[in-house]
Amino acid sequence: MCNTQDVTVRNSFIRSFDDSMVLKGVKGRSGGARPLPGQSYDGLPVRNIRMSGLVIWCDWGRALEIGAETSAPEMADVVFRDIDVIRNTHIALDIQHSDRAAIHNIRYEDIRVEVDDSNPLPVIQSKPGEKYSPRPDAAAAACGGCATLPEHTGYVPNLFVIVIHPTAITRDREAGTVRDVLFKDIAVTGKTMRPSAFTGLDSRHDVRGVTIENLRFNGHPITNAADARLQIGKFAEEARFLGD
Questions:
Q1: Is 33 inside a domain boundary?
Q2: Total domains present in the chain
């Protein structure tokens, strides 16, 4: 959903290879359609989006995402609620911010995330004809930037990721910000807790006001960054954990 307002998606099963449910801000025209007179797509916000009652099976990418294209004045008032992520191999819940939008008031709430016993690395094909060789027992460090612990020897997909950084598809000269993100009533099941990471770009383009409320792993409460396997990087402040 690109530069879109007032959308409801509910009571659906979605299986996709690449990212499953994604909100984006894009430049120019898309799919042959034209913006309204005097407007370009990236002049339109992403606002008032509701997704609920979903079951997500993502074979390769990210399950519930904002980004990586974020060319919009703002992306706000977005709620993902009552969702089961039964399969994904990269990131379950993420904001990948590569353009200028002011991203704020985002809620991921009442979401259940399963972790398989073995997970293939989300490798990107580098040349035509290259075949994918699954290595479920590969070291997590081979994932190229995923939040991991050094001692962990089997790859596990990320749970939460918020990052502000330029990418190959960045179109805006100015970067944006992330404010007021809530992860509430998130239940993870599996043999291993998924890692997470929050990272800003610089002191003006940062991540602030992230709340993690009632995070559970196999029914047990997680109340701090260490137990959550959460890396809080540079320019990411005001992250807090709340109990029940």
A1: no
A2: 1
Domain carrying residue 151: 5-28+39-117+136-242
Answer yes or no: is 95 within a domain. Answer: yes
Place of tokens 């009552």: 82
For the chain, list the strands marked E by DSSP: 5-16, 21-25, 46-58, 62-70, 74-87, 91-97, 102-114, 158-164, 177-189, 196-199, 207-217, 220-222, 230-232, 236-237, 240-242
Whole-angstrom distance, CA of residue 65 vs CA of residue 150: 26
Residues in the chain: 244
Torsional sign, CA 214, 217, 220, 224: negative
Structure confidence by residue, pLDDT tens digits, 30-83: 444 566 665 678 999 999 999 999 999 999 889 999 999 999 999 999 999 999
Q: Is the omega angle on the peptide bond into residue 68 within 30 degrees of 0, that is, cis?
A: yes
Domain-located, residue 124 = no
**What's the token pair of residue 126?**
């580098």
On whether the CB atoms of residues 50 and 79 are closer than 8 A, the answer is yes
**pTM for the full model?**
0.88
pLDDT tens digits for 183-242? 999 999 999 999 999 999 999 999 999 999 999 999 999 999 999 999 999 999 889 999
Query: How many Å apart are CA 28 and CA 235, to the nearest integer?
Result: 31
Does any domain span residue 128? no
Return the closest-CA partner of residue 42 out of 27, 24, 23. Answer: 27
Q: Angle at CA 85, nearest 5°, toward 84 and 87?
A: 140
